[in-house]
UniProtKB/TrEMBL annotation:
SUPFAM superfamilies: PK beta-barrel domain-like (SSF50800)
Protein name: MOSC domain-containing protein
Every MOSC domain range: 18-169
PANTHER family linked: METAL-SULFUR CLUSTER BIOSYNTHESIS PROTEINS YUAD-RELATED, MOSC DOMAIN-CONTAINING PROTEIN
GO molecular function annotation: catalytic activity; molybdenum ion binding; pyridoxal phosphate binding
Length: 181
Protein backbone atom coordinates (compact mmCIF):
# COMPACT_ATOMS: atom_id res chain seq x y z
CA UNK A 1 0.00 0.00 0.00
CA UNK A 2 1.33 3.41 -0.86
CA UNK A 3 1.30 6.22 1.69
CA UNK A 4 -1.67 8.54 1.38
CA UNK A 5 -3.79 11.14 3.12
CA UNK A 6 -7.04 9.70 4.47
CA UNK A 7 -8.57 12.84 5.99
CA UNK A 8 -7.82 16.52 6.56
CA UNK A 9 -9.08 18.60 9.48
CA UNK A 10 -8.86 22.14 10.81
CA UNK A 11 -10.49 24.42 13.32
CA UNK A 12 -10.33 28.18 13.71
CA UNK A 13 -10.98 28.00 17.46
CA UNK A 14 -9.32 26.08 20.26
CA UNK A 15 -10.98 22.72 20.80
CA UNK A 16 -9.65 19.22 21.28
CA UNK A 17 -11.07 17.75 18.06
CA UNK A 18 -11.02 19.28 14.58
CA UNK A 19 -13.79 18.82 12.00
CA UNK A 20 -12.94 17.04 8.77
CA UNK A 21 -12.78 19.14 5.60
CA UNK A 22 -12.85 18.45 1.87
CA UNK A 23 -9.41 20.10 1.70
CA UNK A 24 -6.99 22.23 3.67
CA UNK A 25 -4.48 24.77 2.41
CA UNK A 26 -0.98 24.70 3.87
CA UNK A 27 0.75 28.09 4.02
CA UNK A 28 4.55 28.20 3.85
CA UNK A 29 6.06 28.90 7.27
CA UNK A 30 2.66 29.21 8.95
CA UNK A 31 0.61 26.01 8.92
CA UNK A 32 -2.99 25.28 7.97
CA UNK A 33 -4.89 28.30 6.66
CA UNK A 34 -7.58 29.28 9.16
CA UNK A 35 -6.42 26.83 11.82
CA UNK A 36 -5.93 28.12 15.35
CA UNK A 37 -2.42 26.59 15.50
CA UNK A 38 -1.14 28.40 12.39
CA UNK A 39 1.60 30.97 12.85
CA UNK A 40 5.33 31.58 12.94
CA UNK A 41 5.46 31.51 16.75
CA UNK A 42 4.06 28.90 19.12
CA UNK A 43 0.23 28.69 19.28
CA UNK A 44 -0.18 25.94 21.88
CA UNK A 45 -2.10 27.65 24.70
CA UNK A 46 0.13 26.47 27.57
CA UNK A 47 3.33 27.25 25.69
CA UNK A 48 2.09 30.70 24.63
CA UNK A 49 1.86 31.66 28.31
CA UNK A 50 5.46 30.65 29.04
CA UNK A 51 7.35 30.93 25.73
CA UNK A 52 5.29 33.11 23.36
CA UNK A 53 8.20 33.97 21.04
CA UNK A 54 9.36 30.38 20.48
CA UNK A 55 9.17 29.23 16.85
CA UNK A 56 6.09 27.20 16.03
CA UNK A 57 7.36 23.66 15.43
CA UNK A 58 3.77 22.37 15.67
CA UNK A 59 2.18 24.00 12.61
CA UNK A 60 0.74 20.77 11.18
CA UNK A 61 -0.13 17.65 13.20
CA UNK A 62 -0.14 14.34 11.32
CA UNK A 63 -1.41 11.07 12.75
CA UNK A 64 -1.41 7.56 11.31
CA UNK A 65 -4.82 5.89 11.07
CA UNK A 66 -3.20 2.59 11.96
CA UNK A 67 -3.25 3.97 15.53
CA UNK A 68 -7.05 4.17 15.31
CA UNK A 69 -7.12 0.48 14.31
CA UNK A 70 -4.90 -0.41 17.29
CA UNK A 71 -7.11 1.59 19.64
CA UNK A 72 -10.28 -0.05 18.26
CA UNK A 73 -8.85 -3.46 19.18
CA UNK A 74 -8.65 -2.13 22.76
CA UNK A 75 -12.26 -0.92 22.77
CA UNK A 76 -11.78 2.73 21.85
CA UNK A 77 -13.51 4.50 18.98
CA UNK A 78 -11.36 7.23 17.43
CA UNK A 79 -11.91 8.80 14.02
CA UNK A 80 -9.96 11.25 11.89
CA UNK A 81 -9.67 14.71 13.43
CA UNK A 82 -10.82 13.63 16.87
CA UNK A 83 -7.32 13.76 18.40
CA UNK A 84 -6.75 17.25 17.00
CA UNK A 85 -4.69 16.29 13.97
CA UNK A 86 -4.74 18.18 10.70
CA UNK A 87 -3.76 15.30 8.42
CA UNK A 88 -4.62 11.63 8.92
CA UNK A 89 -2.50 9.14 6.99
CA UNK A 90 -2.34 5.47 6.08
CA UNK A 91 0.58 3.41 4.80
CA UNK A 92 3.41 5.44 6.35
CA UNK A 93 5.20 4.79 9.65
CA UNK A 94 5.24 8.40 10.84
CA UNK A 95 6.78 7.52 14.20
CA UNK A 96 9.83 5.90 12.57
CA UNK A 97 10.72 8.98 10.53
CA UNK A 98 13.83 10.94 11.52
CA UNK A 99 13.79 14.59 12.49
CA UNK A 100 13.92 16.70 9.34
CA UNK A 101 12.22 14.20 7.03
CA UNK A 102 10.28 15.95 4.29
CA UNK A 103 6.81 14.75 3.38
CA UNK A 104 5.70 15.68 -0.12
CA UNK A 105 1.91 15.69 0.08
CA UNK A 106 -0.26 15.88 -3.01
CA UNK A 107 0.85 17.98 -5.96
CA UNK A 108 2.62 20.83 -4.12
CA UNK A 109 2.74 20.75 -0.32
CA UNK A 110 5.88 19.84 1.61
CA UNK A 111 6.10 19.60 5.40
CA UNK A 112 9.21 18.98 7.49
CA UNK A 113 8.80 16.64 10.45
CA UNK A 114 9.95 18.40 13.63
CA UNK A 115 9.11 15.85 16.33
CA UNK A 116 6.58 13.76 18.18
CA UNK A 117 3.32 15.08 19.50
CA UNK A 118 3.43 15.20 23.26
CA UNK A 119 0.04 13.79 24.31
CA UNK A 120 -1.71 15.70 27.07
CA UNK A 121 -4.34 14.92 29.69
CA UNK A 122 -7.10 16.25 27.40
CA UNK A 123 -6.93 12.87 25.66
CA UNK A 124 -8.43 11.28 28.79
CA UNK A 125 -11.17 13.92 28.82
CA UNK A 126 -12.01 12.86 25.26
CA UNK A 127 -12.17 9.15 26.22
CA UNK A 128 -11.29 7.90 29.69
CA UNK A 129 -8.23 5.64 29.68
CA UNK A 130 -7.12 6.68 26.18
CA UNK A 131 -4.04 8.61 27.34
CA UNK A 132 -2.26 5.49 28.61
CA UNK A 133 -2.90 3.81 25.24
CA UNK A 134 -1.03 6.46 23.24
CA UNK A 135 2.16 5.84 25.25
CA UNK A 136 4.24 2.71 25.05
CA UNK A 137 6.87 1.84 27.65
CA UNK A 138 9.99 -0.01 26.51
CA UNK A 139 10.53 -2.58 29.29
CA UNK A 140 14.27 -2.81 28.54
CA UNK A 141 15.14 0.89 28.60
CA UNK A 142 12.24 2.43 30.50
CA UNK A 143 11.79 4.93 27.66
CA UNK A 144 8.37 6.00 26.45
CA UNK A 145 7.23 5.92 22.85
CA UNK A 146 4.68 8.60 22.09
CA UNK A 147 2.21 7.20 19.55
CA UNK A 148 -0.12 10.17 18.96
CA UNK A 149 1.46 11.39 15.74
CA UNK A 150 4.11 13.82 14.58
CA UNK A 151 4.36 17.57 14.31
CA UNK A 152 5.71 19.46 11.32
CA UNK A 153 6.28 22.85 9.74
CA UNK A 154 5.24 23.86 6.24
CA UNK A 155 8.21 24.25 3.87
CA UNK A 156 6.07 24.64 0.74
CA UNK A 157 2.39 25.45 0.72
CA UNK A 158 -0.36 23.80 -1.26
CA UNK A 159 -3.80 22.25 -1.09
CA UNK A 160 -4.10 18.85 0.63
CA UNK A 161 -7.06 16.51 0.13
CA UNK A 162 -8.02 13.01 1.21
CA UNK A 163 -6.52 10.51 -1.22
CA UNK A 164 -3.41 12.60 -1.92
CA UNK A 165 -0.20 10.57 -2.08
CA UNK A 166 2.63 11.11 0.39
CA UNK A 167 6.27 10.68 -0.57
CA UNK A 168 9.05 10.67 2.02
CA UNK A 169 12.39 12.42 1.48
CA UNK A 170 14.88 11.48 4.18
CA UNK A 171 17.47 14.03 5.33
CA UNK A 172 21.12 13.54 4.42
CA UNK A 173 23.70 12.64 7.01
CA UNK A 174 23.08 10.79 10.24
CA UNK A 175 19.41 10.59 11.14
CA UNK A 176 18.22 11.98 14.45
CA UNK A 177 15.29 10.17 16.09
CA UNK A 178 12.15 12.15 16.80
CA UNK A 179 11.77 13.80 20.18
CA UNK A 180 8.75 15.50 21.75
CA UNK A 181 8.03 19.03 20.56
Amino acid sequence: MSARVTAVSSNGTYSFSKPNRASITLLTGLGVEGDVHAGETVKHRFRMKHEPQQPNLRQVHLIHEELFDELAEKGFSVAAGELGENISTRGIDLLALPTGALLHIGAEAIVEVTGLRNPCSQIDSFQKGLLKEVFELDPDTGDFTFKSGVMSVVRQGGVVRPGDPIKVELPTGPHRPLERV
